[in-house]
């Protein structure tokens, strides 16, 4: 077996590979840029080599720099992770020339599957079901319209090279086809240096389902079930699960066999993923093959008990697969939520900064991975599994240079319902402060009826949150639980406060039993009857909730028992109450005496300042371009400036007609969120 491997990646995937390598007794080498000097993957590896400045195109994806690190450390093999150089055939060739093993597929497979047009032709030859479309070169927009009519609207216009949602447009008519063709062509040329475009049928009620394949260099290939990846935004996955709640055994088998046939057609050897689009009638069509380890691989591992990283290393070393298709068993259900440094209240724009608090839920080992002895890292055993693949730590920084992923939080349980329930608790118990993040959104998805029923399509986010995510409105039952909990917690805090030394003599303060709890625009008068084990909270309609907890003032996470049911609340202190976060909702809870509540109703409401005549920076980022000048009249929809952060470029446009009165920023300026870029008359 290899004695030392270099991981040509960063973040949580590098940490993930290191865990398996340690378990196998293999030494690891990390590479890092200036921005990642203190990163977790650097701390976890046995050795670390500096490879350049923060931007990835000057460090992580510079083949010469990575090759130098390999030479310096004497690494025998390289695991590319995903992203960066993982699907770069030139990198695989450079490793081959240097006599270093590539823990990934052969160069030929990368090249063939990396080009969407070539991969589709190979898929058709291998009798893999493909979406009807035109694979030849398209000369101009008029030809694009003609082809679109032949296929039948709606159609998807796609760039042949690249991925990540760039160079993709949906056209519903001739005008859309004309415009989409030109936009996709320009975007593809700018992003990938390749402006080849193809057109295919756009599948309605689409679900994004992918098959995990595993092949060796001896002609053996198996599939490890599927993953449901339909909940996406901007063609990027957010929630994944395995197996899919939609597929039946016959469809799973057909998809799996076709995926293996495709892999064998290109002499694939490693772990890889074949992506399919599946319509409402369970017709499935080949999308593309990812010749690398996927972000969502943990859910496959949790239901099969197979360590995919270990298998990749063994295949790269020349070993045969130790299992056949009949050995693959799907046990239980696994769900993965991608925790991103993105603000869901601002259109999921990236957020950067320091993690002032990062306390993920405690990992628990269970299921096939534990039974097979393949669990990575140390975790106590339990009836269900919680797994958190991460590359950050408390006090660490989320940089503007890289992908905004913080962690991949996974749960496993014997049933889907139980896996969802444990995921809700895990999300509620995840303490994260210092940056904007999508925890509230993930909690909202876990509680959404469509997700619970397993009826989501790739349009889930656009359909359910057409105006963006605006938080969660809690129902009456949830509000009462929080109100009762807040009242009990406030009482404890007030008793603590009365015992503080140095108070005036002869003015002993007594904590009453009657309170008014105000949250989400509602008032709940309550009376508390406390004992040593907890509190009975009486509402004015006769309802009584029993609250018990070990919470003490100052704790930022409260685990409570309310009428025998568990409740996890994130708690922040505000004047006269708490800022409570639960199940995707963030509410200010005020706990007042009846007289204070009476007077509070007479207080004037704070009115938010008028920013309608200002262009605010929507995220921390770099001003790339200013498109207008002071005194210039702008029209609705006109581009005003471009802001860049975390590999994302955002064009900010005018919301209405107006005249630019002042410009406060220039190209090259770094701005914080809500800084004023320009003002209007």
Kindly give the count of domains.
5
- The CATH level-2 architecture of the largest domain is identified as 2-Layer Sandwich
Shape, principal axes of CA atoms: globular
Q: Mean pLDDT, rounded to whole units? A: 92
Q: What is the strand content?
A: 25-35%
CATH 4th-level superfamily of the largest domain: ATP-grasp fold, B domain
Catalytic activity: propanoyl-CoA + hydrogencarbonate + ATP = (S)-methylmalonyl-CoA + ADP + phosphate + H(+)
Pathway: Metabolic intermediate metabolism; propanoyl-CoA degradation; succinyl-CoA from propanoyl-CoA: step 1/3
GO molecular function: ATP binding; metal ion binding; propionyl-CoA carboxylase activity
EC number: 6.4.1.3
What descriptive keywords fit this protein?
681 residues; alpha+beta; Rossmann fold; Dna Ligase, domain 1; D-amino Acid Aminotransferase, Chain A, domain 1; 5 domains; 8-stranded antiparallel beta sheet; 8-stranded antiparallel barrel; 27% helix; globular; nucleotide-binding; propionyl-CoA carboxylase activity; EC 6.4.1.3; magnesium; manganese
In brief:
The protein is 27% helix and 31% strand. The protein is built from 18 helices and 39 strands.
Can you offer a commentary on this structure?
The chain has 681 residues and is of the alpha+beta class. Helix content is 27%, strand content 31%. The chain has 5 domains: 4-103, 3-Layer(aba) Sandwich (Rossmann fold), CATH 3.40.50.20; 132-201, ATP-grasp fold, A domain (Dna Ligase, domain 1), CATH 3.30.1490.20; 207-465, D-amino Acid Aminotransferase, Chain A, domain 1; 476-499 and 510-601, Glycoprotein, Type 4 Pilin (2-Layer Sandwich), CATH 3.30.700; 614-680, OB fold (Dihydrolipoamide Acetyltransferase, E2P) (Beta Barrel). The strands form 9 sheets. The chain has an 8-stranded antiparallel β-sheet with strand order 14-13-10-11-12-15-22-20, sandwiched between helices. An 8-stranded antiparallel beta barrel has the order 24-25-26-27-28-29-30-31. Strands 3-2-1-4-5 form a 5-stranded parallel β-sheet, with helices on both faces. It is globular. The mean pLDDT is 92. It is an enzyme of class 6 (ligase). Residues 120-317 form the ATP-grasp domain. This is propionyl-CoA carboxylase.
């Amino acid at each position: 077996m290899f004695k030392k491997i270099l991981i040509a990646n960063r973040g949580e995937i590098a940490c993930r590979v290191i865990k398996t390598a340690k378990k196998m007794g293999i030494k690891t080498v990390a590479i890092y840029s200036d921005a990642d000097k203190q990163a977790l993957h650097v701390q976890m590896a046995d050795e670390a080599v500096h490879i350049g400045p923060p931007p990835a195109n000057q460090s992580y994806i510079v083949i010469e720099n990575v090759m130098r690190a390999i030479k310096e450390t004497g690494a025998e093999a390289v695991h590319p992770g995903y992203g960066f150089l993982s699907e770069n055939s030139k990198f695989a060739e450079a490793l081959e020339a240097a006599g270093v093993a590539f823990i990934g597929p052969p160069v030929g497979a990368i090249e063939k599957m990396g080009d969407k047009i070539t991969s589709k032709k190979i898929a058709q030859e291998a009798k893999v079901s493909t979406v009807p479309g035109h694979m030849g070169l398209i000369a101009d927009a008029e030809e694009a319209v003609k082809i679109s009519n032949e296929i039948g609207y709606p159609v998807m216009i796609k760039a042949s090279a690249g991925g990540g949602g760039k160079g993709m447009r949906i056209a519903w008519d001739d005008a859309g086809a004309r415009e989409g063709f030109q936009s996709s062509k320009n975007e593809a040329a700018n992003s990938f240096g390749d402006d080849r475009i193809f057109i295919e049928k756009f599948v309605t009620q689409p679900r994004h389902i992918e098959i995990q394949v595993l092949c060796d260099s001896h002609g053996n290939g198996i599939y490890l079930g599927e993953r449901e990846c339909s909940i996406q935004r901007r063609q990027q996955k957010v929630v994944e699960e395995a197996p899919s709640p939609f597929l039946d055994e016959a469809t799973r088998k057909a998809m799996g066999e076709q995926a293996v046939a495709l892999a064998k057609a290109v002499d694939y050897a490693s772990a890889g993923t074949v992506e399919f689009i599946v319509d409402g009638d369970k017709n499935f069509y080949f999308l593309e093959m990812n010749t690398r380890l996927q972000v969502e691989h943990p859910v496959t591992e949790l239901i099969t008990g197979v360590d995919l990283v270990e298998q990749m290393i063994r295949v790269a070393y020349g070993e045969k697969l130790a299992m056949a298709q009949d050995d693959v068993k799907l046990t239980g259900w696994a769900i993965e939520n991608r925790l991103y440094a993105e603000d869901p209240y601002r259109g999921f724009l990236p957020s950067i900064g320091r993690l002032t608090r990062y306390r993920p839920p405690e990992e628990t080992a269970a299921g096939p991975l534990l039974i097979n002895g393949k669990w990575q890292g140390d975790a106590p055993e339990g009836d269900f599994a919680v797994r958190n693949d991460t590359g950050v730590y408390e006090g660490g920084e989320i940089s503007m240079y890289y992908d905004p992923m913080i962690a991949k939080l996974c749960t496993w349980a014997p049933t889907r319902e139980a896996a969802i329930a444990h995921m809700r608790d895990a999300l509620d118990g995840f303490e994260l402060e210092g940056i904007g993040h999508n925890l509230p959104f993930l909690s909202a998805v876990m509680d959404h009826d469509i997700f619970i029923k397993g009826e989501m399509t790739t349009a889930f986010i656009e359909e359910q949150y057409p105006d963006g995510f605006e938080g969660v409105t809690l129902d009456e039952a949830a509000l009462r639980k929080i109100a009762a909990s807040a009242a009990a917690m406030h009482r404890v805090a007030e008793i603590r406060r009365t015992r503080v030394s140095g108070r005036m003599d002869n003015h002993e303060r007594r904590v009453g039993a009657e309170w008014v709890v105000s949250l989400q625009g509602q008032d709940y008068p309550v009376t508390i009857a406390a004992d040593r084990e907890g509190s009975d909270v009486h509402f004015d309609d006769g309802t009584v909730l029993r609250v018990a907890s070990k919470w003490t003032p100052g704790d930022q996470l409260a685990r409570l028992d309310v009428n025998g049911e568990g409740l996890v609340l994130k708690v922040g202190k505000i004047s006269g109450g708490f800022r409570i976060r639960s199940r995707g909702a963030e509410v200010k809870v005020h706990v007042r005496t009846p007289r204070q509540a009476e007077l509070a109703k007479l207080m004037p409401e704070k009115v938010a300042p008028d920013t309608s005549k200002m262009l605010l920076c929507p995220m921390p980022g770099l001003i790339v371009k200013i498109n207008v000048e002071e005194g210039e009249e702008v029209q609705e929809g006109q581009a005003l400036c471009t802001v860049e952060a975390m590999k994302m470029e955002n064009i900010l446009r005018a919301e209405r007609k107006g005249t630019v009165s002042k410009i406060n920023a220039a190209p090259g300026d770094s701005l914080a969120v809500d800084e004023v870029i320009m003002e209007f008359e």
